[in-house]
Amino acid sequence: MTKLLPILAVSLALVRGGTLFLGAYPDSVLVVDEAKGQITDRIHLDTGLPTSLRLSLDRKKIYVTTNDHSGVEVIDVATHKVLNHFVLNTPNKFYRFGGGTPDPKDQVFYTVTTEMNKLADRYEIGKPKYTVIDLAQQKIARTVDIPPKDENANAGGFGFGRGGFDISPDGKYLYQFRDSVVVLDTSDFKVVDRIELSKPDLPGMEAIGFGGQLDSISELGRRVSLFNSSDPIVHNRVFGIATFDLNNRKFDFTPVGPSPAGMAGLQVAPDKKNAFTVIANGTLGNKRCEFWTFDLGTNKITRMVELPCRSRFSFGMSSDGKKLYIYGAGFEIEVYDAATLKYERTWDLNNDITLAGMIVLP
Amino acid sequence: MKHLRAVNKKARRIDDYVSAAKGDVVALQNPPAPPQPRPHIPMGCSLSFSPGWEVDSAGGTAGLCQPVERDIYDCYVTCFWPAQVPDHLNNSADWANKCAAATKDWRNLDLVFP
Questions:
Q1: Is any Cβ of chain A less than 8 angstroms from the Cβ of B34?
Q2: Which end of chain A offers a freer environment for a tag, N or C, measured as fewer CB atoms within 10 Å?
Q3: Architecture, CATH, for domain A201-356
């Protein structure tokens, strides 16, 4: 029996998977065991429906924004307990915001909000503003006007798409990965640097382009992402792989080939050797999707396999990088093998998943 | 002469010929469309004129979620189709409180009376 115990321990370690955190309707975060493909816990959110999930820099907390009353909830990853929750709305003042990032010390939350004041005869609608939310005081600490040039990109739509920030490990700079990469100083939100890139036009897909927001496997202070650009003469659209060093604001782009119509972000395997994306060409009934595997050593495509694509979906990867997930617009997660890119199984969560996305932790 | 305008086919062809001669030469180049400024929609609910649940933007059904119930919640939360789906942000926050998976238990969705 004593000889069997180490073997049993090793076997258990092998089958033990990571944990997925998914925003779910109507007011919860689902905790899914990757090994079982089942919900193991359901974290209730007092402030309502989750619209974004964000992992803290130390990976010990998850920041959730909710949209019933413009709330923020902080979840402890280890215990699944809600450590802090509050709403920004008051009876006569409402906010719209979705997504953001905490500072490295977990004291404030950076986002973009739009304020609406309920007056006696009308609503007074404000413009989007850079916003710092004090997590201890549970209120907005300060707002900064957005220059007209950046206003449209921060306006977002339907309460989403705002505040897609990333932060440098020293907390001094905020990065916005949108149609261009904009670097902001956290002290005054002045633009420190701006890298213009063409805006990808990607119909019917989610979490696309410079998607630092859900890139939960990347290294601290480093992001690897896909980018799209076009040349100024004949406007050929080209995609490539971009590496961002958030510490010293250095960017490295490697063009790979002609851009497909849509790309569902880049998922980098934990070994940092391979990365995966889902591309889509065509629209509506002519839409075709493929998995693409990249060798990050040479920045070349090593494998392409077609998959049946949903009308809308998000793309994720398991904690060990061995499985790929297609989820969103429904209650199921389709699991594919990352090595062969073949379909394996479908996990039925029996609960619709929100646009908040997924956080994967080992 | 600017006050003159073509009234028959021949005159219109002459008009097109003259204006084409003044235009730029576009060969194999695909000129980029000028960036369209996005409308400022502050309330969170759209003023979208998308057709609705029955057909997609091309008039077919291939672009819709299959089945369409998969799409209910994302439209409900984002107010994408405020006429077809109750709007979560402003008026019907509790509409889906008893229904976690719309495809399976849509009967539990609440009724909304305008």
A1: no
A2: N
A3: 7 Propeller (2.130)
User: What's the CATH number where B54 sits?
Assistant: 4.10.940.10
Do domains A49-196 and A201-356 share one topology? The answer is yes
The pLDDT > 70 percentage for chain A reads 85
CATH of A49-196, one of 3.40.1370.10, 2.130.10.10, 2.60.34.10, 3.40.640.10: 2.130.10.10
Q: Does B44 touch chain A (CB under 8 A)?
A: yes
Q: Which of A253, A257, A254 is nearest to A236 (CA)?
A: A257
What size, in residues, is chain A?
362
pLDDT at A155 over 60: yes
Q: pLDDT digits over A3-41, tens only?
A: 544 544 444 444 568 999 999 998 999 999 999 999 999
Cα A214 from Cα A356, distance rounded (Å) = 9
* Cβ-Cβ contacts under 8 Å, A354 against chain B: 73-74, 77
| Predicted ipTM of the assembly | 0.72
End-to-end CA distance of chain B: 58
For the CA atoms of A159, A172, A248, A180, the dihedral, rounded to the nearest 10 degrees, stands at 20
Active site residue B56: no
CB contact under 8 A, A311 and B44: no
Cβ of residue B68 closer than 8 Å to a chain A Cβ: no
Q: Give the confidence band of B1 by pLDDT, cuts at 50, 70, 90.
A: low
Asked if the Cβ–Cβ distance from B64 to A285 is below 8 Å, we say no
Whether residues B42 and A26 touch (CB distance < 8 A) is answered with: no
**% of chain B surpassing 90 pLDDT:** 5
Sheet of A38-44, strand order = A38-44, A28-33, A19-24, A353-361
- Amino acid code (one letter) for A215: D
pTM: 0.82
| Mean pLDDT, residues A139-150 taken together | 92
